[in-house]
Amino acid sequence: MPSRHPLHQRYPGLPDLLLLLVAMVWGSSYGLAKQALQFYPVLGVLALRFGLSFLLLLPTQRALADPAVRRATLGAALPLGLGLLAIFLCETYGIAHTTAANAAFLISLCLVLTPFAEWLLLGQQPTTDALLAAAAALCGAWLLSGATHLQLNSGDLLILLAAVLRAVVTSLTRKLTADRPVATLALTGLQGLLICLGCLLLAGLNGGLPALPRQPAFWGDILFLVLLCTLFAFFAMNYALRHSSATRVALLTGSEPVFGALFAVLWLGETLSASSWLGGLLMVAASLWAVRPGRLQTATA
């Protein structure tokens, strides 16, 4: 007879494991997004990525037949979808106009900002442990990026804005989904639909989009972004934020630049300095510190 206990109670480490996997796939997404942008404009890449995600998740909308689930899911979908639209617009345009090092450093500022966004939106004052882990992870990201002489251009400012929005949306997701009958996969699909429609609207206002590329490399990038960086990552984030704190989630996914660096070395053939490797190790240590037993409180639903 199957257990009646929820997954997060039977496997208490599941949310943390999912978040580390999210960090892995999101770390690789920067290089893949840059490759895709060589074939197609920003709005087109985003519309295609999230439109396909919605179509693949269309069967999950059947969960909305339950009135309580529908109210909770739709109530969360609109603000979170619009927030994610703003994040991805800032990130993708920013990546196109700045270096990978600056982007890795600036997006990691959400580690420091999330405890304060959680305090503002949820009334949960950050613990000393959370602040220390966030500060250590930020120092690690700084070393990893090699951005010792950071000069902000338009792309950098967009990435910085994306980091602020990430902190806010992470905390808002926790606020709108915790202890509510939200259908996680249906919510993921609706978020994708809102991002797709938003990008198509903006593209229409700017003269429309060109014909779709035919290069296999482009479609390989898109499939990876859809299946792993969107479907899996959004589901894992939405699931984890229902059973963990926003600060804990931000710290675990904060190892994203480490996996981005590994992807660049192993797949793109790039090299990293000793200070970059030191920064990566510091970020991993900060993430392990954040999830050590008995320290940071984990909210359960």
TrEMBL record:
Its main location: membrane. It is a multi-pass membrane protein. GO terms for cellular component: plasma membrane. It is found in: Cell membrane. Keywords: Cell membrane, Membrane, Transmembrane, Transmembrane helix. Pfam families: EamA. Residues 16-145, 154-290 form the EamA domain. The chain crosses the membrane at residues 12-33, 39-60, 72-96, 102-123, 157-173, 185-205, 217-237, 249-268, 274-291. PANTHER family: EAMA DOMAIN-CONTAINING PROTEIN, OS03G0707200 PROTEIN-RELATED. This is Drug/metabolite transporter (DMT)-like permease. It comes from Aquitalea magnusonii.
